[in-house]
Amino acid sequence: MSTACELAAFRGDDAPALVNASLSCRVCLSGAVEWSLSAGVWEAEVECCCHSCGHVRTVSLTGEQALRLALHPHAGQ
Question: Residue 55 carries which DSSP code?
């Protein structure tokens, strides 16, 4: 089984609704997703877990996207 790399589809200055839509569940399309940011020196990713269907996925982030999520009110909850 091959693993596909998914890259988040939002910019650092996008509206919060677009950021949330980018992290929504790809299986059931629910926005009820809990995410956890993991950022290193050279790469960053966010693990998304859907509350509706339980689907878990890892999404790669650019530096700008990682900064946006680190400053997001959800971060650290």
Answer: -
pTM: predicted TM-score of the whole model, two decimal places: 0.82
* pLDDT range class, residue 73, cuts 50, 70, 90: low
Q: Write out the E strands in the chain.
A: 6-7, 33-39, 44-50, 56-61
Token pair, residue 63, equals 């530096």
Distance of CA 74 to the CA centre of its chain: 11
Of residues 49, 70, 74, the one with CA closest to residue 59: 49
On whether the CB atoms of residues 47 and 36 are closer than 8 A, the answer is yes
Query: How far is residue 74's CA from residue 76's CA, in Å, rounded to a whole number?
Result: 6
